[in-house]
Amino acid sequence: MTGQFLLAMPGIGDPRFEHSVIAMCAHDEKGALGIGIGHRVEGVGLHLLLNQFEIATDGVPDAPVHAGGPVEPQRGFVIHSRDWSGSESIDVAGRWALTATVDALRAIASGSGPSKWIVALGYAGWGEGQLDEEMRRHGWFVTPGTESLLWETRPEARWREGFSSAGIDSRLLAASAGQA
């Protein structure tokens, strides 16, 4: 599922993931890692993060910081366009890149970084086979999504638009499945 989006189904059963949109950055036999891009961290903006690293904020918009997931919520990640790459950046299925070092923040602040980016704190992680098991139950919907979902859609609209890009009206989804 690397390079695709996970959309939390209604009734996923974990309030931390209600209406979540997860940009999947790695998924293999050892596990999976994704970054939440559907919810903002209240009271935290890019300027606050830059100030913590003593990086000047002149000319940099104070963009929202996203709740990347419940694992290591103090750790920062930048999902960004592939027109910039730091020494620790990884390419995600040729669709975007992921960097977890302060180099990305420095580049963004200096104007020499990627043209498109999303900053997040924390990540969603799954151990060996865990996500595959969750996919067999009522929990997640996977979609290739679109570039506009990642870069142009407001965070609060990404969940609805993610389903829409797959031809699904999210208003018609039920929180539980029936039994025959």
Automatic annotation (TrEMBL):
Gene3D superfamilies: VC0467-like. SUPFAM superfamilies: VC0467-like. It comes from the Bacteria. GO terms for cellular component: cytosol. Belongs to the UPF0301 (AlgH) family. This is UPF0301 protein NX02_13510. It comes from Sphingomonas sanxanigenens DSM 19645 = NX02.
